[in-house]
Amino acid sequence: MLTRFNLLLMIGLIWNAPISINGQEKLPLRVGIELDILPYATGGYFAAICAGKKHWRIRALTAEVHKPDWSTKKGFNNHEITAYAMVFDYFPASEWRRWWIGAGPVLWKSRIRADGFDQSTPFTNILLNGSLGYNIGIGKYIYLSPWMGMSLKIAGDKNIIIQNRIYNLPLLNPEVSLKLGAHF
Q: Beta 76-90 vs 56-66: how paired, if at all?
């Protein structure tokens, strides 16, 4: 995953290259990168790049999460999710500071096992995420962002048969975590 992170970092730095207009240096967009502690804590990964101006930001992200068994429906375990999302954020304060609220579509490609069996079964769902967080500045470019969100399942596989048991992703999927980010 380190290779993906380095690629995202390079794209962000190149995209942020100053442009000179009439002898004045201007940045057309603010760009940034983010990491989220939750996926890493579960043995997965997370990487996001973002771009925007003033009050608005768009984030493209990918993550892999290994959900703890206590958070998975009884009778099932080893729920692994690879997620891809495009999230649109609004900051009441400008320049990506303080409170933010966001929403966007998320694709979950999952694998799960029935208790007592080693074979995982794949399934896919589309969710709509809503999030709320607060960016705490640590210096000029770095921030921590505690956040929480709720993802609503809107489409995808249902009644997944796994070893004669039926699994359905819950309609509502809550999340709470902490992001580390940088913007330029």
A: antiparallel
